[in-house]
Amino acid sequence: MSWLPQSGPGRDDFERTFALRPDLFEAWREFAGLFFEKRLVDPVLLELCRLRIAQLHGARHPLSVRTPEALAAGLDEAKLAALAAWWKSPGFSDLERSCLRFAEQFVTDAKTMSDDEARPVVAALGDAGTVAFVEALALFDGISRFCRMLDVEPA
Amino acid sequence: MSAPRVKPPATRGNDPISASALAHQPEALLAFMKLYGTLWSHGILDQSTKEMARIRNARTVDCGI
Q1: Which of A11, A59, A89, B17 is the most exposed place for a label (fewest CB within 10 A)?
Q2: CA pair distance B61, B65, nearest whole angstrom
Q3: How many helices (H) and strands (E) does chain A have?
């Protein structure tokens, strides 16, 4: 359980922690849900990046959950087993590799992102898709940091 | 300064956020503004602490906005 002395209602430690600020939690859920529900970006691509970011942060809660839209789109545990060393695995497409590289750079040092790293992502996703993708990365990065800093337990 | 990686959208708002590339995704922009507005308007943390963190973060990632 999170080290916070208080908690709110919820089904797991994440919900009970975020429920301490219910209005913020509701607005966050509404925003975060859009990216998968409206398919602003391919759900498998998003889920791979969400989980890779959680791996980089060692964030246990986001690593313990799977987004239903990504599973419905065909993402399976065999592929996820290779995610921690995706660059060594032939099971990731060129676009997935470009997006994972972009996501890692976003987390580790966004200001050193190069045009060469960004170009294949923008070319594949388009302007609107790239905006959605980067917004989603910000959400994933933020919530992984949230869970890590507050020591939110896995679901 | 390098060129923007995403072209500016055709329809843009007047404030720095809605005038940015975020306007490419209007529904996400609205949801973001609601979240951001909640954070700034309804929080229990004082505004100066939030602003200090916001500016510090922007400097860390070298974001001019």
Answers
A1: A11
A2: 11
A3: 8, 0
Q: What is the ipTM of this complex?
A: 0.89
Please name the amino acid found at residue A56: L
Question: pTM of the predicted model, to two decimals?
Answer: 0.93
The closest of A78, A76, A12, A86 to A49, measured between CA atoms, is A86
- Backbone phi, psi, residue A21, to 5°: -125, 75
> What digits encode the pLDDT tens for the residues B1-44?
568 889 878 776 777 777 888 889 999 999 999 999 999 988 78
Distance from CA of A28 to the nearest CA of B (A): 6
Confidence at residue B3, expressed as pLDDT on a 0 to 100 scale: 80
List the Cα angle A108/A69/A38 in 5-degree steps. Answer: 85
User: Of A31, A46, A116, which to mutate for an interface test with B (greatest number of B Cβ within 10 Å)?
Assistant: A31
Interface contact B35-A111, CB threshold 8 A:
no
Of A50, A78, A79, A82, residue with least CA distance to A66: A50
CB contact under 8 A, B25 and A135: yes
A-chain residues near B39 (CB < 8 A): 24
How far from the centroid of its chain's Cα atoms is residue A84's Cα? 14
